[in-house]
Amino acid sequence: MKTCFKKTRNLYFITSQRYSLGRNSFSVAESAVTGGIDILQMREKDLTHQESLRLAKKLSTLCKVNTIVFIVNDHPELAKEVNADGLHLGQEDLDRTPVCQARKLLGRNKIIGVSTHSLEQIKAANELDINYIAFGPLFKTRTKNYFLGTKDVKKAIELSRFPIVFIGGINTGNITNVLNLGAENIALISEIAAAKNISAKTKQLKKIIDEYPESHNNS
Ligand code: TZP
Ligand code: MG
Questions:
Q1: In angstroms, what is the C-alpha Rg of the chain?
Q2: Residue 219 predicted with pLDDT over 50
Q3: Ligand 1 within 6 A of 137 CB?
Q4: Residues near 7 by Cβ (< 8 Å), separated by ≥ 6?
Q5: Predicted confidence (pLDDT) at residue 6 exceeds the cutoff of 50
Q6: Residue 12 to residues 9, 33, 51, 100, Cα–Cα distance (Å)
Q7: Could you tell me which of 3, 84, 6, 105 has the C-alpha nearest to residue 41?
Q8: Fewest C-beta atoms under 10 Å: which of 18, 42, 129, 202?
């Protein structure tokens, strides 16, 4: 499947000041970039508009300099203003920001991703003018109050018309289980944001993804 990202396999880090052990999201992102992430999403729920804009501008520059895909969560106008590579919308955002409206604002060359939490939602997302789907949470995690397990991972890959990013409670201990099911894109918050040594943790995750056998057959 043609990917909207730069590579076939991607380590996708999502910022969250809330889970960063008191460190600011810019410094956390810088360390994650040093560690080798491929995609960065800014997802900050506790910042004012001005703070979000300031952070988004800095992250956008950081990503451009390091050729990392930069995605803004929730805020289409912010994504546009800082010339991000894309926008991510949750299910609850879709009423407020229909994908067609976001596409009109951002244009054909930008990436739009949508969160899904069931196979039904993947079917619905397949009808949208988007570039990727996120599916999860797969595992128990502090950041969500439920999880799906991994039983639908293969089905999700088969069903999705778009590249699919798996998320939720993924860590160095279980990432291989997700790769074994055919996943190519792995997204995380707390495993990286709450790591003592962020760049070392990121390197460890990236090594697992990069060294996963290319020929692995997920059928
Ligand atoms: N969507 C599904 S799970 C999740 C989001 C934003 C949070 C993932 O965070 P973590 O800490 O990697 O479990
Ligand atoms: Mg949202």
A1: 16
A2: no
A3: yes
A4: 38
A5: yes
A6: 10, 10, 23, 25
A7: 84
A8: 129
Of 150, 134, 205, nearest to 173 by C-alpha is 205
Cis peptide bond prior to 98, omega within 30° of 0: no
Q: DSSP state, 78?
A: H
C-alpha distance from residue 191 to each of 67, 77, 87, 156, 164 (Å): 23, 29, 22, 23, 20
Would the CB of 188 count as within 6 Å of ligand 1? yes
Question: Relative to the alpha carbon of 134, which ligand is closest?
Answer: 1
- Confidence label for 216 from pLDDT (cuts 50, 70 and 90): low
Compute the distance between CA of residue 121 and CA of residue 39 in angstroms, rounded to an integer: 23
Q: Is the CB of 113 under 6 A from ligand 1?
A: no
Mean pLDDT, the chain, rounded, equals 96
Distance CA 194, CA 192 (A): 6
